[in-house]
Amino acid sequence: MVHGDLMSQAEDVADQFLRVTKHYLPHVARLCLVSTFLEDGIRMWFQWTEQSEYIDSTWSCGRFLATIFVLLNLLGQLGGCVLILSRNFVQYACFGLFGVIALQTVAYSILWDLKFLMRSLALGGGLLLLLAESREEARSVFAGVPSLGQSSPKHLLQLGGRVLLVLMFMTLLHLDLSLFSVLHNLVGTALVVLVAVGLKTKLAALTLVAWLLCINFYFNAFWTVAAYKPIHDFLKYDFFQTTSVIGGLLLVVALGPGGVSMDEKKKE
Length: 268
Hints:
Structural class: mainly alpha
Shape: globular
Pfam family, one: SURF4
Family: Belongs to the SURF4 family.
Number of helices: 11
GO cellular component, one term: endoplasmic reticulum membrane
Number of domains: 1
Keywords: Endoplasmic reticulum, Membrane, Protein transport, Transmembrane, Transmembrane helix, Transport
Protein name: Surfeit locus protein 4
Strand content: under 5%
Largest sheet: none
Order of helices and strands: HHHHHHHHHHH
Radius of gyration: 20 Å
Distance between the termini: 24 Å
Number of strands: 0
């Protein structure tokens, strides 16, 4: 009984939060989601020489092709972010960023690093949610057109986005037996399962956002490390990738779980 009352109160708090933030939450979600692409695109500009030399030395492709690679990354990421934030040609921008993720996965050998691969897939999950949101906006123009039902592309995109987003949290699990690690693993795993299956989705996603925010600012505080130290770039990379996944989770909060979810089944 007490558990049910607490859950009901928590859901009321989440609903109140959504009512207050509904007009600007999608904008914040988009900005957070593209933050890692913005940061990486800007880094490509300031580390143009280093990046092209790395690609050339790794793949022996010559400086010309290495420079083309850096240019594609820079334009693809910054251009895609501008289009998404301005809500112009969002679908094309998402496909472009999917291409950047695929290109970097091969070029930087991310395919063979499970942690980085899972994070790249989580970023892809966020982009799937952006695609779902853009389909919703496009459909609102044709309000009288019949829906395709629960298995519509939009709902499938939301399902795929939710499932891929939880991969980010899997990379944050700790294998030691300290009290914090056990608590972190148990609470986090419960939340990501709820988000993945679409049960109490908005409350679980909002709680996971708060959880990831605390972890991100505590463990990935790159601004506290001198810029010349290698760990600075690693922390910065982790910080913005986690921020992008937070943006994806905020989109889940704003859009809801979609038709393919336990919440939707319960309504029926």
